[in-house]
Amino acid sequence: MGDTPNLPNVPADQAKPDRAGEKSEKQSPTDQMQAVTISREYGSGGGEIAARLAERLGWHLVDHEVVVEVARALGISEDEAEAHDEQADTLVSRILAGLGMVQSPVPVPMPIQLGTDQPAYDAARRQVVEGAVTAGHTVIVGRGAQVLLAPRRDVLHVRIIAPMAQRIDYVMAREGMSHAEAEQRIRNKDQVRAHFLMSVHHRNPADAQLYDLVINTGVLSLDSAIDLLVLALERKAARLADPAEALGPGTGLAPYVESPAETGPLSN
User: Fold this and answer.
1) Is residue 116 within 8 Å of 90, Cβ to Cβ?
2) Quick one: pLDDT at residue 255?
3) Which residues contact 262 (CB under 8 A, 6 or more apart)?
4) What is the SS3 assignment for 240?
5) Which letter, b or e, does each residue of 41-69 get, where b requires 16 or more Cβ atoms within 10 Å of its Cβ?
6) Alpha helices of 58-178 — where are they, by DSSP H?
7) Residue 185 pLDDT more than 80?
8) Is the pLDDT confidence value at 253 over 70?
9) Which residues pair with 138 in a beta bridge?
10) pLDDT single digits (tens) 187-199
11) Where is 185: in which H helix or E strand?
């Protein structure tokens, strides 16, 4: 996959750091946060960032690999799972519901009875996302999690983007495609992901209001992006106890000494 690395399977009993051991000696500033959701443009490195972030924090990673493993358990090919993942159709309902049938680092309730309608799919997907947050300390890639978990202040929402030319280079290098093939794959994947969020949640994944942080990897390295995410986690964790009225860009600012001059409609 263009923005998702190949990762080994992690047994459920090894997926989380031993909190009675080294990690528990000193509490991390990010421990109060329960999850990071990562939305990504295809080829922006978002999947790789998610994997590295989870590794650095010692958190669970809920990404496409989980769906692929479930697809295998259900007797569905990986290509079929890839073709239907993050789409508003019923095949994904079967895949996500199957998470209750295989070992996973994310605790999921018993599979619900799925029909052929959209509500059944939504219920299955919600089980996966809410199960991940219940487990805590989870990095969730895609799956509409930025919308499902929007009300929670203990979740950091992130969008990873990059210029098209660099995304094409990324996909060409990672997937061995020609320039034309890489560009077409990017456009197709972006369109499918956008359709998924628009059709199910009536939200545009490119809407910056859905996120705490939008990172452009066109200049910043992937490791630099991870540094920013860790910092954002710490800073958001530090505000969890603050009342809602104490949040916002005007917090702690004194009034202007003089009213700002009107500079016309082009002023920021």
Assistant:
1) yes
2) 85
3) none
4) coil
5) bbbbbbbbbbbbbbeebebbbbbbbbbbb
6) 64-73, 78-84, 90-97, 118-135, 145-148, 164-175
7) yes
8) yes
9) 35, 60
10) 998 988 888 888 8
11) helix 179-201
Residues 6+ apart with CB under 8 A from 91: 76, 80, 84
Identify whether the C-beta of residue 233 lies closer than 8 Å to the C-beta of residue 36: yes
Q: How many CB atoms lie within 10 A of CB 40?
A: 28
Q: Confidence class of residue 2 from pLDDT cuts 50, 70 and 90?
A: low
**29 pLDDT above the threshold of 80:** no
Tokens of 157: 């929402």
Give, as one character, the DSSP assignment of residue 87: S
pLDDT of residue 117: 41
Residue 73 three-state SS:
helix
Start-to-end CA distance of the chain, whole Å, equals 40
Q: Which two structure tokens, joined as six digits, stand for 257?
A: 């000494």
pLDDT tens-digit readout, 89-137? 434 444 444 444 334 444 444 343 333 344 545 666 677 788 778 888 9
Those residues with Cβ within 8 angstroms of residue 164's Cβ, 6 or more apart along the chain or in another chain: 183, 186
> What's the order of all strands across the beta sheet hosting 60-62?
60-62, 138-141, 35-40, 155-161, 213-216
